[in-house]
Write a structure and sequence with these properties.
about 325 residues; alpha+beta; five-stranded antiparallel sheet; four-stranded antiparallel sheet; 11 helices
Length: about 325
């Protein structure tokens, strides 16, 4: 919306000082022509924007101009800033809205607290892309236009028509009643029903989406946390998944959990290892994931998986024990 963009433009100039039209266009994700039109509109409305010409020129506000955005105390603003400096721009396609909100949060603070809060937020990192042991899988990409349509339909309570590519299937159109959106480990899902049956769709597999005018057939109130737990339980109870019992060294627990579909039980053992009951997609998935952990994991059951890992290890030993 243009009103939001005009506010964001003013806040950018307040917080960063003089900026060129090109720099403003990049921040606001619009063309330089749009920025120039917005500058003219602000000037006509009485906002003191002026242009400085020359190689280091640009647009700026008169020094004493201030917007009226209040209501946040220091800790509330700090909490929002910490969240905003994390990976929130990758959640449900809200990157532009998040950037705009962060500018408003900073501007809402008293002058004496503004710099301190921004500096404090930069000293707190939430959920970074890399950790001490490994690099997490990349966030699944969802086309921005598709995400906007899906999000709008969920919030408006309208039905959706999605062009969806299920695993090992050709893409086809489906009409669904959206319930809500969930993000888990940087993967986004749409919880919905289709013809009255529960359905869960991976957002990254949506090729395109259309919001329909008719209202979605769904309850007025929703408990997404409960629905997600129920659907996870149903998914894991479906045929084809493999339950595995393992003992793993504490330092490799996260590596194991990251590759498994779910952890069904967990308890420490006297020697410092952990005993876990985990679920994998199938035997092939389990063999691949547990092979990565080498001697740091001991598969207790099923016997077929133990045999598969033993045979793979024996083949490696045989290959590298031959004289060259």
């Amino acid at each position: 919306m243009r009103a939001d963009r005009l506010i964001s433009l003013v806040l950018l100039l307040r917080q960063r000082g003089r900026m060129t039209a090109a720099a403003l266009a990049r921040e606001l994700e619009v063309s330089t022509r749009t920025v120039l039109r917005d500058i003219e509109a602000l000037s006509a409305a009485g906002v003191p924007v002026y242009a400085e010409r020359g190689r280091r020129g640009g647009f700026a506000l008169l020094p004493d101009f201030r917007t009226d955005l209040t209501g946040l105390n220091h800790d509330e603003a700090l909490a929002l800033l910490v969240a905003g400096f994390g990976r929130g721009d990758q959640v449900f396609g809200l990157g532009s809205a998040l950037a705009s909100a962060m500018r408003k949060v900073v501007d809402a603070l008293p002058e004496s607290h503004r710099a301190a809060a921004s500096d404090a937020a930069r000293r707190m990192l939430v959920d970074p892309e890399t950790d001490l042991l490994s690099r997490r899988p990349g966030t699944e990409a969802v086309p921005g236009t598709t995400m906007v349509v899906v999000r709008r339909a969920v919030l408006a309570g309208h039905r959706l028509r999605i062009h969806y590519a299920a695993t090992d299937q050709a893409p086809r159109w489906r009409t669904v009643d959206p319930i809500g959106l969930v993000t888990v480990r940087d993967r986004g899902y749409l919880l919905a029903t289709r013809a009255g049956a529960d359905r869960t769709y991976r957002l990254s597999r949506m090729l395109t989406a259309e919001e329909l005018p008719e209202p979605a057939r769904r309850p007025d109130k929703v408990d997404l946390d409960r629905i997600w737990r129920e659907r996870c339980a149903q998914f894991l109870s479906d045929g084809g998944h493999l339950a595995v019992s393992v003992r793993v060294v504490l330092a490799r627990r996260e590596d194991l959990v990251r590759t498994a579909l779910a952890v069904r039980a967990e308890e420490p053992e006297a020697d410092g290892r952990l005993r876990l009951e985990v679920t994998f997609q199938d035997a092939r998935h389990a063999e691949w994931a547990l092979w990565q952990l080498a001697a740091d994991v001991d598969v207790l059951a099923p016997r077929s998986l133990r045999a598969a890992l033993r045979d793979r290890a024996a083949a490696i030993v045989s290959r590298y024990s031959r004289s060259t």
